[in-house]
Amino acid sequence: MSSVNPDLLKERSGVSFPNEELTLFIFGGPEETKKKRWLISLLDVNKNPVLKNEDKHFIPRDKYYIRSLEKMKKLFQIKKQHDIDGEDWNFLLLSTGEPMLPILHDVLFIPTLEGQMSHEQLEKWIPLAKDYAIFGCYAQTELGHGSNVRRLETTATYIHETDEFDIHSPTLTSTKWWPGGLARTSTHAVIFARLIIDGKDYGVHSFVVQLRGENHKPLPGIDVGDIGPKFGFNNIDNGFLRFTHVRIPRDQMCMKFSKVSRDGKYSTPSHAKVVYGTLVTARIYLVERSSFALAKALCIAIRYSLVRKQGNDTTNNHNESIVLDYQFLQYRLFNSLSIVYTLLFVGKWMKDLNEINEKKISEGDVSLMADIHSISSGLKALCTDLVMESLNDIILACGGHGYLRSSGIPSIVDDYAQSPIVEGDNTILQLQTGRYLIKAFENAKNGRPTPATLFYLKDYSRILSERSSATTWEELTDPNEQIKALTHYHTRILAKLISNLEESSKNHPQGYEGAKSDYMIDIINVSRAYCYTITITSANEGLESIKTTYSNIYPILRVLINLFFSNYIIKYSGEFLLDNYFNSNHIKIFELGIKNCLKTIRPDAIGLVDSWEFSDNMLNSALGRYDGNVYEALYNWAKLDPSNLAHEKGEYIGYNEVLKDIYSKEYLKGINRSKL
User: Fold this and answer.
1) Ranges for the Acyl-CoA oxidase C-alpha1 domain (predicted)?
2) What is the rounded average pLDDT of the residues 474-478?
3) I want to staple 193 with a disulfide (CB 3.0 to 4.6 A). Which of 87, 91, 93, 156 is the partner?
4) Domain 118-272 - what CATH class?
């Protein structure tokens, strides 16, 4: 084992808190930490070399896919041997360091079955799915329609004579497009299609369709394939799917809620909100996991920035500076650190809220469903946008070496780049949340009931009249003051939006609803402001709840949340100055406070990333190695490139094929020079 870089050793010795305590918090307590460390140990690449990621950048796409299948098989063996399931299984998959096919099966396919199938159907399908006797994908998006689910074109027509549904793709744009795991892996799909009975369209419903039969050959009437190379996720076989009058039994329509009887009678529950549960599962998962991807990239960048030295050498000082000592680099990376830990609290809060909701649903209470749908939509958009913006900053923070695949950061960016798009495009989701807020405010304004999470809108007049009376940094960043400031801002711009809509609707040909199309930017801004309010509220409440249990890490987490809040205030300072909620002196205090936060975080930076306990294989980075020996790793990794391996054998790629002709002028023979 190589020795650890002395600069990293020095940094680790200066952290103000015990790393173990922060790890316990990140992992969810002593028992969860013990379990997660055990799970990570099962992925030891010395015992399971098939799980190595080191050479993945040097293998072609088809072999990369096969390598992923080999990893999947090994993971299934580990799962069976140790009886791993649920959250533990998801964590194991996440800890491999790259996207894994079972996540699509376990996070989308199985929850859809569980959420939309009847008890009798579950008894048949769930054992097969959980045992991987079948492998499924979630086929909703079509070539012509994504977020607008109501306009999907695939049809499922009930055939009375045979008690079957005829599944058909009537147009090119009805082709299912994008489902992960569809192209080569899946045996089955949950597909979303328009239910047609006796010529009547009952809207989009879900059906289970078998795709492949003996020797994995596609069944008759099924045209399935790969959509081609993507920005990232290229070990995942995203595919296309077309049906030509494929028959399935009636009982393969998911019938937990809506049902079709043998004689073709359609029935559906009076309360449509019960279907929201399966729609929001993936969004909640993305909110929960948003901090994980960013923490990985930051672990690489901060370790590298503590080893990298650049500039500041003079005649009297021949030592270059550690680049993380430069203020602007701190600003880039520590702002992202503040996002990581703030979103960590948000993910825990969202998970807890969803568990409360699921318990209520089991008791027949759907009062939280609309809230969950709105909040998960808005938070999915905000969290993934924040992470994506930060990842781009991190690449820039690492300079030229960060641009190398061997840095590990481009892979994280590539694979995460889908997150603002999948499971609902962020723009569409923010519009949904914004419209929900409009309705809630209208109810509050007219004395009607408001959703539980927006109860405070009843006091909107008081909220709008408030101004900050704080005079110091400590008062401005008090948890209650943070929540009050963001509640005031999002309520103010929501009230302004309502006023504008009411005024605009007077002359709009489509009235109030039509006027909304002229205020899409405002609706999105309201949604984001509301979700920032949820973020700050849940982060502060979460932090205060662990003040005693995790007393050693409380101070640095408080600084990080204060930094997150202060950056938001500075970004939107014009809005807060507009109605004098804050004054110019407040803004000066925030600006100075941000700089002081950077100074406080600097000695703890290494501890804040080490505590995630990412393995070197998980990071797959020459720059982010635990031992800090980045330059040796960069050089050794470069030597693995196939062109360099060929060079060592005396094979000079490109020379005999082309370069020899150019250098010898052979390529010019027979060419007659034209004359003007």
Assistant:
1) 276-438
2) 98
3) 156
4) mainly beta
